[in-house]
Amino acid sequence: MPAIIHKPVSAEKSQHWAARTLPGFLYFGYALLVILSINNGFFWDSILLASRYGNWYFSTNFSTLFVPENIAGYPPLFGMYMALGWKIFGKSLVVSHLLILPFALGIVQQVLKLCRKFLAENPAAWAALLLLADPTLLAQCTQVAPDVLLVFLYLFSLNKILEKRRLLLIFSLIFLGLLSPRGTIAAFALFLTDAGLFWFEKKETRTLKHFTTLFLTYAPAGLLVIFWQILHFRHFGWIGYNPDSEWGTLSQFAGLKGMIRNAALITWRLFDFGRLFIGFGFLVTLLYYFRKRLQFPPETYRLFTLVTIPFFLFSLVFLPFTNPIGHRYYLVVFLLLALLVCYLLAHIPNRLFRKITYGFMLPGLLTGHFWIYPDSVAKGWDATLAHTPYFELRREAIAFLDEKNIPLETVGSDYPNLAPLSITNLNNDIRHFKPKDLKTDKLVLYSNIFNGFSDEELSDLQTQWQVVKSWKSGQVKMILYERK
To answer: Is 6 a domain residue?
Structure first.
């Protein structure tokens, strides 16, 4: 690992160029990432959670707490934040992305602070670079995604736990718990993490008073979440998910076979999109410790606690249900695991080993943006920057249909290309594509971004349909098919 040296956290700050230069580079890189995305439409879950929710609160002037039942199920905080931003600065894609910018930069700040708690300045800067290079985190920052806020609030809260600053922690937990259902789970993960770290304290500090303080820190967020769920149940008659909705089937019990499949899927998510190289770096670092009979450095077990508690809690929640498990669900786990690897690596005395291992992990992680799967394999397109050409290709396809005077409503397509343009692009165009039906459609707009085409439908398009026009950029392709 470049310039990482074996010395305690309390050692004098390094004057190496990395400690002075990399933080500024990271802030600039994340700001540029968001700014370059300001014309991209809403994508994947942000179509619902940012645009549909935001548009509801914007159009109703916050006169009601509850959104329509067909889109209900989520706390109102993120949608209200978007609507308030639009009220102040104007409703546009540019404003929407810029509303994410402070939290993207906040993630950089919190990652740097967290790394400096466990490492000296120079290795902390290199560790932060590895954490912030995660493909899924980068991809989420290009979208108007609530997961950017979730990661920021989680890291902010974690830093406050480590700093023992309970007042600020109370407020951050409230925002995290009311952000989204996974935000609520994340807040509970922080409670378990806080309790776990409590046992690493000296025995004389583990008093009933301190445990009571720990419990009371989380009580306001917990009570507000319970209050919101009661209000939601009284208004709609259900919580969590609408059993009568078309996506309610995705939240049913998975059964034993489904749980085994989910476990395999979670394992795949951990190593997907370049994180396989982090896992390999972790493995060879552990092997080095065991072969050289090195003692693990003092903060290893605390860091291990930070990683394992959210991982197992999220997994226990996701395993029993049929709901697809996205890469972004484990973002905080990805970051904390990378920090643990960097911490262990920093305390290895062999400088060449550190450099080679780090030099293997960072470029390998970045290759995740280029991992290609066959069209028949569903890919987490919202989890890498590979999806970014989609927006321009979509604009070109719509322009072609307009040129040929083909109404969008006559062209079959699939999620996330079904919402009205007024929702995805925040304009006044209420046109939209229709849900695909290859038995009746005459035209179908397909993209490998869409995971909803079955193997049979993909085969049907190849044999029973002809290409009218195709577009391709990077890994993304878009094809307009016409029935033969």
So the answer is: no
- Rounded-to-integer distance, Cα 283 and Cα 298, Å: 19
| pLDDT, average across residues 233-257 | 76
Q: Check residue 247 and give its pLDDT.
A: 60
Residues 365 and 406 in one domain: no
Containing 457, the helix (H) or strand (E) segment is helix 455-464
- Are 153 and 216 within one domain? yes
In a domain, 195, yes or no: yes
Measured CA to CA, the distance from residue 326 to residue 380 in angstroms comes to 7
Answer yes or no: do 346 and 448 share one domain.
no
382 is a domain residue = no
The residue from 335, 370, 405 where one domain ends is 370
| Residue-by-residue DSSP string for 43-69 | -TTHIIIIIIHHHHHHHTTT--SPPPG
d(CA 406, CA 398) in angstroms, rounded, equals 9
Q: Is the peptide bond before 435 cis (omega within 30 degrees of 0)?
A: no
* Partners of residue 480 on adjacent β-strands: 445, 469
Q: How many CA atoms lie within 13 A of 162 on its CB side?
A: 18
Q: What's the CA angle centered on 327, arms 321 and 333, to 5 degrees? A: 100
Contact 254, 320 (CB under 8 A): yes
Query: In terms of domains, do 337 and 436 share one?
Result: no
Give percent of the chain with pLDDT exceeding 90: 83
Tokens of 107: 């993630």
Query: CA 105 to CA 415: how far, in whole Å?
Result: 30
Of 422, 473, 482, residue with least CA distance to 448:
473
Q: What is the length of the chain? A: 484
Four-point Cα dihedral 123, 128, 133, 134, nearest 10: 110
The per-residue pLDDT for range 192-223, each reduced to its tens digit, is 999 998 877 666 666 777 778 888 999 999 99
Taking a C-beta distance cutoff of 8 angstroms, is the pair 301, 366 a contact? no
pTM (2 decimals)?
A: 0.94
Structure tokens belonging to residue 285? 């670092």
Kindly state whether residue 398 falls inside one of the protein's structural domains: yes
The partner residues of 413 in beta bridges, in order of sequence, read 435
Tokens matching residue 377: 């394999």
Neighbours of 189 (CB within 10 A): 25
Domain region containing 234: 17-370
Number of domains the chain contains: 2
